[in-house]
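User: Predict the structure for this protein chain, please.
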Amino acid sequence: MTESPDIQHRLDEFADTWQRITGQVRRVIVGHERVTEGVMLCLLTGGHAILEGVPGIGKTLLVRTLAEALTLTFRRIQFTPDLMPADITGTNVITETEGGRREWEFRPGPVFTNLLLADEINRATPKTQSALLEAMQERSVTVAGETRRLDEPFFVLATQNPLEMEGTYPLPEAQLDRFLLKLLMRMPDRGEIGEIVDRTTGSEVPRAEPVADGPALVRMRDLVREVPVAAHVRDYAGALVLATHPDRDEAAPMARKYLRYGAGPRAAQAMILSGKVLALVAGRYNVAMADVRHMAAPALRHRIIRNFEAEAEGVDPDRIVADLLDHVAEPAE
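Assistant: Here is the predicted structure, written as structure tokens:
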């Protein structure tokens, strides 16, 4: 089907802006293409991402680089066990006016930004975690009974240590479900480490240049929501979700053996929304089955709950998702 000239122009503009932004990221970040893609997908769908990886592999640099390429504000919160909710949202303080009167004044917390890096979120207590997750969901914070809206675009990249590390408070499954995607940041290989050393130990450290802004990002988000999804593609995403439930007839073999609980409808939403962005980047105005398959692991890996047998045998969520993709047949058009 031939697209209208207006739609074709918007498709070209979308793909061009994507390439310019990711090109600036590649100037600074070595490797991590899937992570960069996942962060961009969350930005362009209005979702948030949770990133798992060991310290020191470029998480802060990635978000700061995106902020520079998009001329957006950036803040970072280092989560610690003594961090309080008010340290995130802000608080009211008593100030003295020129006339000597005392009055309450709101001092906004670091959540009032465009891009927020919530570093090591699983080191904070559940109460503090909940304060951030509420801001993510509602796009607002309430302090002393007054609600204040957060500026758009608003994106949270939360990082967490591997769960086997000491001194952590793992996020409950219901809260993990609020993140659109879970991204895994792997250690770079030898060649990438060499390139990182070359880039960061020379006389000039590469920096991203601004190539887009907040309004451009909002326009891209609007186009993402307009992309149509065929019924058979939508049903395929739903079939993948249902196949994660071990008690259902359509459960995949590894899901039946290794899962306690399957994913909910938000997983299908994540696959379809992310698939819309992938379609636009490829110059298409429709979501393909391959887009859904590409997004299955990041959309499902934090939403499926493994049983003891899976933990004991070291079966990770991505192996279970791979089995799902082999098990669930693509529906005919």
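The mean pLDDT is 87.
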